[in-house]
Amino acid sequence: MPPCFNDGCDETHNPQLRSWVEDANGHADFPIQNLPLGLFRPRGAEPQPGIAIGDHILSIHALVDAGLVEGDALVAGRAAGQGPALNSLLALGAPHRRALRAAVSRLLAEGAPQRPELLHKAADCELLLPAHVGDYTDFYAGIHHALNVGRLFRPDHPLLPNYKWVPIGYHGRSSSLRPSGAPVRRPHGQRKLPDEPVPTFGPARHLDFELELGVWIGPGNQLGQPLAMDAAEGSIAGYGLLNDWSARDLQSWEYQPLGPFLAKSFHTTVSPWIITPEALAPFRQPQQPRSAEDPQPLPYLLSESDQRNGALGVALEVLLLTDAMRQSGLAPQRITASHTENLYWTPAQLVAHHASNGCNLCAGDLLGTGTISSAEPAGYGSLLEITAAGREPLALSSGERRRFLEDGDEVTLCARASRDGFVSIGFGPCRAVVTPACREWEPL
Ligand code: MN
Q: Distance between CA 395 and CA 366 in Å, rounded?
């Protein structure tokens, strides 16, 4: 086994490790080195906790019922079965997650007794949101996104003076979070473009996506008790992908002075598998150094170990498939390739800042990082940036052009972590198709 860049690597990361679940070996997203947590519904049955392995899902219920786990792994397995989602398991924290991971890795490894009765075919199951999300907060930590959007409105000083001091965020809407696959309906709202004298009400005309990482909260903190940086790191239960759908024509009219509201609360798509910090241990990397003129983070946001390996090395992509492309048999077109190294704050800094005023974070809460654009146009994480607010349409393989999203467009976010000497893991898709606005808008 190669030396691990970070602490926390063990036998479960061994690149030689293979599974008796044949389709897991060489699987793009879910080889035996990943083992993400999720909530699935087998056809005609109740939702239950599971672990993705290749094109299959291991039932944690079946694992516990068969008496195949003990100790902390058994505690974790039982917690996963409490309640309608994985909140109780997430609340346990790293030692229990690690014990469950080690036990499942041993059980699924090549050479272990084969137990196909523990598995479901993923294609026969529905994937649900993995947790009941009490609160969802969206940050703005992608510095190139902040610069690009800032330049559209303030060419001379794109970043506001607070940006490099304080992680910017807003409280989002948890009730409209949906798992990958659920269609997103074009919202209605007050739209007013700069050249229009008064707003009108109707379907959004500038519908956009945002490429973001989701951060799932585990143990959290008590009200009034902030989290130090080390504890903030330990409060993260895992990661996913998040598409913060945004109606730009609603947003530009409503956002001042209190920030985003109905332009974003109509729908947020989340990838259903929680990629654990344990699975990502080989793919940690140093936080990008700040330039000499940037301020150092204030002490409550600064930790040596977080700066050394608190960032993630995850490559990100956005694929677009239009109705016309679908009908012509064309493949989805990659319109963005970015990377998590474009985040100005680490996930632990976002968590520590969120709790710094004593706000209690709870198991199953979800944070979005903010749109993760790279410095180059090929890595812009929203159409607002790719098309310069619609001024420079994007050319598609079908001959179509896009300023913003049309009905029938399908947006897929993808993420992949790789490092020499380790088996790559993926996050699974975060995908949704845009459906037409309500034909006749009738207030109820
Ligand atoms: Mn966002």
A: 34
